[in-house]
Structures are given as structure tokens and as C-alpha cells.
Amino acid sequence: MALVANGIGRSFRRVEVLRGVDLAVEPGEFVTIGGPSGSGKSALLSILCGFDRPDVGSVLIRDEELDGAPSWQRCAVLPQALGLAGELTLAENTALPLLLTGSPEARSRSVAVLAELGIGDLADRYPNEVSYGQQQRAALARAIVVEPAVLLADEPTAHVDHASAEVVLTVLRRVADRGTAVIAATHDPRVHAVADRRLRLDKGRLVA
Ligand SMILES: Nc1ncnc2c1ncn2[C@@H]1O[C@H](COP(=O)(O)OP(=O)(O)OP(=O)(O)O)[C@@H](O)[C@H]1O
């Protein structure tokens, strides 16, 4: 399995948001997580990528238990808040995970991934010089440039127009088909439509 979560529980200010979440995702599988606003989708993704720790339960990525945030190659994230560095261009932001691995073709690979997402012409612009939807696609480019074992995407189509959403969905599907386990939290029926498996958070548990 690419990712296994066992009995994840998490409370905030005594409100139990997650109560025993179990999840197992295979390499190459595309899973969506739905559920109403406030049901705990982002909270769950934060735990799956090691940004937050559960009160109970464990997460394994490629059979290794998470202890803090794993490397970007094991688990890459498209967060809801994007988190692009404002002082770096889109190409430089996208290249960051490759620079950490010492890849010599960081620039060319980043521009290629930006182009795959339809924003190759914006590679040398800074985040504040492009729209929020374009920033979102750059944050997705940064997440997939290293071909991670697991990709966690929080609302990957939330800020993009219809045509751009189609591009994002095609790329997410392609990333899964190349072997990455993709887990996307979403309200968007178009994302659910391209997934292999659709789950929903209901009263703190994942249900089909
Ligand atoms: N760090 C935190 N401190 C306190 N409460 C939190 C924290 N993180 C999440 N919560 C609470 O947990 C619940 C679930 O929040 P979460 O953001 O995971 O929902 P969501 O399903 O992702 O919602 P949305 O669809 O609006 O993004 C909410 O009631 C939220 O207020």
C-alpha cells in the first residue's frame, strides 16, 4: 500500500472531528474525500501528510510509520492555502523540491510541469503577478514535480475556471496512472468523477 491510516482520531477544543478513520490507498489509485464544510477533510489531510499529529491512530507511507513530516518524494501536498514563496517565480517555486534532491534539471523539469498545467508562459512571473487559480496550478506543479509516492490535494479545483479545471483533472489522473496514490479532498463533482474510489467523511468516519 502507498498509504495506510489506522484508527485516526483528532479533537479540537474537545470537539471530536475525526473518530477512527481507516484508509488504505494503493499506488496508482485516485481517491476522493467529500463531506460538508467543517467535516474534517483538511484536518485529515494534515494528519496524513504529517503536518499534524492524531490524538490516536497511525499513518504509514510505503510501510513506514510517519513521525513528523515525510520527504516531499514520499508525500507531496497541494494545501488549501497554497504556500507559494512570494519572493520566488512560479518556476523557482516549482523547482524547490527538486533543488532539495540536487536534481540538475530542476529548471527544465519545473517549466515542463508548469506547461503541462497550461501555465508554462507564466514560469518567470511571481505569485503576485498571476491569478489565484494560476497560483493554485503552480502549487500543484510543485507537488507533482518529484513524482511523489502519495499526493494529497486539498480542493484542487477550487479556484480555477472550467477549462483550467479540465487541465487539472487530466493531470491528476495522469499522475495517478503513473503510480502516485492521489487523495483529493473536494466538493467538486468533476473531481469525484475521475476518481477510482469516492469516500465521504460522515460523523468523523470515512464511508464509501
Ligand atoms: N487547528 C485547529 N484548531 C481548532 N479547530 C480546528 C483546527 N483545525 C480544524 N478545526 C476544526 O475542525 C473542524 C474540521 O475542519 P476542516 O478544516 O478539516 O473541515 P473541512 O471539511 O476541510 O472544511 P472545508 O470543506 O470548509 O474546507 C472544523 O470545525 C474546524 O473548526
UniProtKB/TrEMBL annotation:
Signal peptide: none annotated. Residues 3-207 form the ABC transporter domain. One of its GO terms (molecular function) is ATP binding. Keywords: ATP-binding, Nucleotide-binding. PROSITE patterns: ABC_TRANSPORTER_1, ABC_TRANSPORTER_2. Pfam families: ABC_tran. GO terms for cellular component: plasma membrane. SUPFAM superfamilies: P-loop containing nucleoside triphosphate hydrolases. It comes from the Bacteria. PANTHER family: IMPORT ATP-BINDING PROTEIN. This is Putative ABC transport system ATP-binding protein.
